[in-house]
Every structure is written in C-alpha cells, then in structure tokens.
Amino acid sequence: MRKILLILGLLCSPLWAEPYVPQTQQAEVPKPTELPSIQIPESVPTEMGLKEAVETAFRYQSSLRVSESQVRAAQGRVRQQASGLNPRLSIQSTYNEQLINSLSGGLGGVFSANGWTHNATLSQLVTDFGHTRDLTAAQENQQKANQSAYEQAQSDVALQAKQAYFNLLSAQRLIKVQEDNIVNRREHVSEARARFTAGLGLPSDVTRAETALSTALFQLSQAQTNAGNNRLQFNLALGLDPRMKITLRPEEEPLLGFKTTEELFEMALAQRPELQQYKAQVASAQSTLDAAHTTSAPSISVNGAYQNRQNPSFQTLGINLAIAFQPIDGGLQDGKITESQANLDRAKAELEGAQQRVLSQVGQAYLNLKNAEQQVATTKAEEANAAETLRLTNGRYKVGLGIFLDVIDAQSALLLAQTNRVNAVAQVYLSRAALTRAVSGVVTSP
C-alpha cells in the first residue's frame, strides 16, 4: 500500500510543484574609461593616416631634436679644426699713463710712453705637413657619421610611429570584434531562455549562455583598456601630449619592391644609414691616424705685424717667417700613433659587426613577413570555417538535434578566429614596415 501511494505521489507531484527558474545575474555593457582631453593644436592633424603619423613624429619627437643637435655640434667642430688652415688676424689696443717720470736721486727723467698703442698681427699657416688638414678631415668624417646617425634616428622614429599606428588600429578593430561577440552572445541567451520556457531546453543552457555573455562583457572591457593604452603609446611615439585624441584613418603599409631575395641583402648593405655611419667613423679614424704621424712635424707660418704708438709717435710694419719644430717629443707621437691605430682597428671591427647585424635583420624581417602572410591566409580560412560551424550548430540546436554547449564552443571558436585574423593582418603591415626599415632605412611613407 505504501509503494502505491509513493508512486502516485511521484506521478502527481509536477501538478502542484512550482517551475524552476534559473538564478542568473546580468552585467552591464562596460563603458571605456576616458582620459581628460585637451585641444589639439592646428599644426597637428586631428585625423591621421600613415603618412601624417610619420610626419608628425618627425616634427614633435624630441629624440630627433637631440640627434639633430649633435649634427650641428659636429659642424661646429669641423669649423673649429679647419680654422687652423685659414688666416688669423688679431688686433690689440692698450692705453698707458705713466704717473712718475723721474728717478730718485736726481738721475734725470725716464722715457715716458703715454697714450695709445695699437697692434695688428696677421698669421697664415704655410704647412705643418698635413697635420691640421688630416685632423680637419677626421672631423668632417665624424660629421658625416653624425648625419648618418640622424638618418638612422629618423628611420627608428618612423618605424616606431608605424608600429604604434597599426597596434592602435588593431586594438580598435578588436573592440568591434568583441562588440559583435556580445551581440551573438545575447542572441544565444534569448534562444536558450525561449527553449527553456517552451520546455525544450535545460536550465544549465540558460546559465551557460549568461556566463558566456558575462565573459564577453569582461573581454570587451579588456579590449577597451588595451585600446586606451595603445593610444597612449601612439601619442608617445609621435611626441604628442597623451591627452590628445587623434582619429586614425585606416591605411595599409605597402610592400617594398624587390625581384629576388638576394637583392634585399644587397640593398641593405648599400643603403642602411647605420653602415654609412660606421664607414664614416672608419674614415675619421684613418684621418686621425694620418694626423698622428705628423704630431711632431715642423710647423711653418708667415706673420705680418703692424704697430702704431701715440706717444712717442711711431709706426712699424714687419713680416717674419716662423718655424716650430720639436725633434724630441718624449714619445708623444708614438703614443698617438698607437692609440689612433687601435681606434682604427676598433672602427673596422664595428663596421664588420654592423654589416653582420644588418644582414641578420634583413633575413629575420623577410622570414617574419612570409610567416605573417601565411598566417593571414590561415586565419581567413579559420574564420570562414568557424562561422560555418556556428551556423550549423545553431541550426541543430534550434531543431533539437544538438546541445547548447556546442553552440557556446562554436561561438568561442569564431571569436578566437576573428581575433587571430585581426592580429594577423596587423602583423603583415608591421612586418612590411620592419622589412623596409631593415633593407633601406627609408623614413618616408606613401
């Protein structure tokens, strides 16, 4: 009898039991955190493509001003050193007023030279056996090295500006991916609730859908934060105030034109600013060594002197030949030769090492570009397959042939594929910019 009552109770219990409602919490769509903004100067474009970003970096990046000042300082050192080859005129005027013009003891008066005395001397180096000329050549080559260093700094700034541009552009595109993901997750929540209400779905389907939606909201917040940080890095690369809000105009980095892979290495050896800098340093070290060999050589100069004295009044004009020679210098010249030879050997070794690094950078940049291009093709197929899988999985779930967990997994796979595609496309442009920098050091953009 008890068994019969128990069975009847189990069969009739749904008639008076309240239906189960899944207990879920819903998060709000995150809003991006905004920094305080300032007015953008008229000299800064409010909307930038790739070319405007590079040009703005050239105008405002402080590191370029540091490098450019070093070029001007080198020009000044050339003029200082070359002054020894040019005529020199010195002028001196003195005034003398003698207060006592007689000696004690009645020995009579002394010569009094009161008034102005003017002296002018004109000097010209005739020869020092190339010593000053070689030192001037060393400074001229050092100036060329500083100029190449400035061009290298321009290349680095241009590459950094391009990297910041594409990173920010990619971060903004990932926000759109996350926003589309939220739209899809909301549709899944609505579908899961509708099937549960109709008695065709499980409570766990609703909770899974809500959990996936919350995760999507969290990922959107993270994407917004990443975009904000990338904007700060973009302004920093351009030398702008981080509070300036610049709108990006989507553009592509063009592929460097070349026929064969070997041509890339030949172009790099001929065009890279770093190599021109090291070559100039080798030439400067060679000129310094040549000058060291004439450290104690004779120096011959011609001097013309004119003097005009007021009291007693007389004028003099003379020309003389001056020869300075130090036959015994205590080892000064040998020491300078040894030092200069060591500096020349070091400069040659640094040039050789720079050439090896440049070739390695070209090879690495080329491999990275080819890998990025392959990844773009792969991610396009990945995204297409993930989208088709999601479409089929949604269809199966709606007609009751699939489980909701498959829908969640398919949507996650699509999100991953879309994220990979955005990152792969950005990596192609970054790799192109790196290859251009590695091969030619070109600083201009299309």
How does this model look, in words?
By secondary structure, this protein is of the alpha+beta class. It has one domain (24-86, 131-293, 343-439): Outer membrane efflux proteins (OEP). The protein contains 9 helices and 6 strands, in the order αβααββααβααββαα. It has helices spanning 2-16, 50-60, 62-82, 131-197, 203-238, 261-271, 273-292, 332-398, 404-439, and strands at residues 47-48, 88-96, 115-127, 247-248, 299-309, 314-324. The strands form 2 sheets. The chain has a 4-stranded antiparallel beta sheet, with no helix packed on it. A two-stranded parallel ribbon has the order 1-4. Strand 5 (299-309) and strand 6 (314-324) form a beta hairpin. Helix 2 (50-60) packs across helix 4 (131-197). The longest helix is centred in the middle third of the chain and has 67 residues, at 131-197. It starts with a helix and ends in a 7-residue tail after the last helix. Residues 10-17 and 105-111 have low confidence and may be disordered.
